[in-house]
Amino acid sequence: MTETRTTEEKLTRDEMAQQVARDIPAGAFVNLGIGQPTNVSNFLTADQGVTLHTENGMLGMGPVATGEDIDEDLINAGKIPVTELPGAAYFHHADSFAMMRGGHLDVCVLGAFQISQAGDLANWHTGAEGAIPAVGGAMDLAIGAKATWVMMSLFTKTGESKLVETLSYPVTGLGCVSRIYAEVANFELRDGKVYVRSVHGISFEELQAKVPVELTWA
């Protein structure tokens, strides 16, 4: 284990978003899901040339809008006010889903309730009262994008790992997740194995004790 693979403290949400933004390839077409992933837009640089897609019908979305930049008619799929970049385009909801389903997105970044070691994703329903009633566009994004990454807290409020051997919640997509960005570790999932890319505020041994799947250093 080397210094570059660890930090003494857990990552903040902004630091997690910075890491995701840094890893997005230059020139990529990207969808950022509802919740934590939305924050990634604030850390993309102009030099990256990344084009953000939102499923309610926009290409060229900019950072989250604040103050006088807020336009209530300009929102992302999570109903958060956003900005537009030069060259932004708008289109029908059905055309937006055709982009998602047609494999035209390079990366989507989603939240999750559970992820299995095989990369199976559950992110739309837990059975809790008042939970989101339908899968929405998450299924289309998870399967349609060339790469599906997840940004989430690794543990529930009661301390249970969201990275599990097999899902116990309704499935969003099978074998679709290739990376996980969490406050205590970053993971890469491939060939049915879970590789740890970095740890934060926790040792590898402590992480392994808390996560019910076999972990390997990347």
What does this structure look like?
By secondary structure, this protein is an alpha/beta fold. It has four helices and 14 strands. Strands 1, 2, 3, 4, 5, 6, 9, 11, 12, 13 and 14 form an eleven-stranded mixed beta sheet that branches. A three-stranded mixed beta sheet has the order 8-7-10, with no helix packed on it. The mean pLDDT is 93. It is 16% helix and 29% strand. A hairpin with a 4-residue loop joins strand 7 and strand 8 (121-122). Helix 2 (93-101) packs parallel to helix 3 (138-144). The termini are close together. It is globular, with a radius of gyration of 17 Å.
Features:
globular, 218 residues, 3-stranded mixed beta sheet, 29% strand, 14 strands, 4 helices, 11-stranded mixed beta sheet, alpha/beta
Strand and helix map with partners:
Layout: E1 6-7, H1 13-23, E2 29-32, E3 51-54, E4 58-64, E5 82-90, H2 93-101, E6 107-110, E7 114-116, E8 121-122, H3 138-144, E9 147-151, E10 163-164, E11 177-181, E12 185-190, E13 193-200, H4 204-210, E14 215-217
Parallel strand pairs: 1-13, 2-3, 2-6, 6-9, 7-10, 9-11, 13-14
Antiparallel strand pairs: 3-4, 4-5, 7-8, 11-12, 12-13
Helix pairs in contact: 2-3
